[in-house]
Structures are given as C-alpha cells and as structure tokens.
Amino acid sequence: MYGQSTQFLYLHKYLVGGATTFTAHLIHRIMKNKPIILRSGNANRSEKKLRDFGYGLVYQNVASDVVHKIKYPFITLYKENYFHLISKLNEKRINFDDITLVIHDHRDISKSSLPYVKKWKLITIRKTVQHYLKNKFDLDSLFLPHPFYTYPVITKKVPTDVVSISRISFEKNIDIILRANKLLNDNQSIKLYGCISRIYVHHFLGGQNGDFTKYYYGQFEKSFSTLSKILAEAKFVVDLSVLKHDGGGTQYTFLEAIHNGCALILHRNWLKNNDVKEEYCDFREGYNCFAVEDEKELSDLVKKNPDTSRIVKNAKKLIKRHANVDWSFLLKND
C-alpha cells in the first residue's frame, strides 16, 4: 500500500483551512482515482477505518512507524507538532528528493526542521514565501501556482450578499469586519462563515456573547457545492488577511470567490507591504480587486455598492493560470 507510488501525507491535527482546501483541489486536479490521504499521529497502531476528509476525499490515521516505509511521500501540509516524523522520513533513504513538501507560509519551516527538509523537493505556492525561504534559510524551492479544480458553480441572477469565508482566526482581521458591520444597516452587513478559533473570538471579538454571533452564519460543510451555494448569493467576498513575510499572491478564498463570480475586497497590506515585491503581486486595486485598510473604508465601499463586472472579468484571468498549472510531474510510480 505504501510502497511504489506517490502517497499523500497530511501532517497537521486540524482538517480545516487553506491547506485542507489545497489538498482537495490538488487531488481532484491530478488524480483520476482518488487516493487515501494518510494522516499520522502518535498512535502505535493504524486505524482500518477511513474518515471523511471533505470534498469527496477520505483519510486514514496511521501509526508513525508506517511513515518511514513510504517510498514517495507527498506532504501537502507539515506543522511542527509532527516534527517527530521528519527523521523517520529520512531513515535509510538514498534519494531525498523522492520526498515532496508543499510550504504554505513561513511558519512551515523552522531551524529545527531545516536540517531534515533541505534535501527534499520543496514547493512554494506564493512568490513571497519562496523569496523569504531563500533569504532566511538559503532554501531553494520550486514555485508553482495553487492548483485549482474548476468544479461546477451555482449562479444567481442578482447576487447581493457581502460575505467572508475565511477562518475566524488570527491574521484574518475579522475584527475590522465586525466594526464595519456596526456602521452598516442590517441588510448591508457582512456575513461571516468559517471555522472558529475560540481563543481569537474570546479575546478579539467579544466572545460568544458579543456582536460576533449576530453576524456569524456557521462553519460550512467541506464540499464544493456547499461553498458554491454560499457564493452564489454573494456580490462581494471580503478577505482581509495580512500574513507576516507573505502577501501578494493567491489564497483559496480568493480563488473560490473569483471562480464563483464574486468581487474580492482585500486588505491593502496584502497588495503592498515590505515583504511583497511588485512583481510578486497578482492583484491590483481597482483592476481585479477592491482594497481597504479599515472599517470606515470597508463600510463606505459596501454602502457605495459599485458595479463589479470589470473587476470580476479581470480577476477571472487568474483562474486560467491555476486551472492549467501542471502538478502531475511530481507524481511517481515505479
């Protein structure tokens, strides 16, 4: 089972967020027969049970000693709490570039993991992250745009909602959205969907008894059709992400919005900051997205309710790159 062809590994305890969506889009794009995703922990025994990964995929929890038996690991996400597996992957291995690791942001690599991963085949999905890894660790990586599976979309004639489908968590600036909602009428307010970080909600959004619950519509099912139903009602998608040592490129919330015909409202610091070189930036304010910095700008934009046809048309050009990028050359099969 684990020997002679590429095996996808997901090394994180949470099955939500951009890396989960990345794994789903990647597999749907390049694999005709959908594989079992392996997820390892500290257990001494592997489970026989297959569990729901979302997006029509399944995963299996396997014992950590299974990992070193995998000839061609393709790690779609690695986080430091799985550090104990890194050395196992390198045991008795001759060709270290048989291991592929996708790096999503600067936190995926540390001084601890560096000695183990530097000989692997490293893939970055934003130019800014690729630049950071080279400057910080002298790590070479191959940049490939996010793979995107162009699933069927649901359309409505006159979508009017303004929504956020980001995680309700740090670095997403959900607090700006809440403050903007206080400046808007109820029929204009921005609807929040997504997985909650309870710590973030408690400390930054006033807890479950604050205004947050008024605008929160829940965590949506991990399926392309469910997501498209939400976005079919939306004219705008708000994503105010600002990530350290990052920015300029795409995220899956951006691509999902564009694919479903929604106009993006981004944080201006995603487009321009000290980490983002101009040539790394896929977005231009007023051309393929709107941009704001605070609740006043955001609420004013929502009230103004501008025509989005040109913004959406220009943004659609990005999808072609992500729908056509070839990741299949990374697959191996003896």
UniProtKB/TrEMBL annotation:
<protein>
    <recommendedName>
        <fullName>Glycosyltransferase</fullName>
    </recommendedName>
</protein>
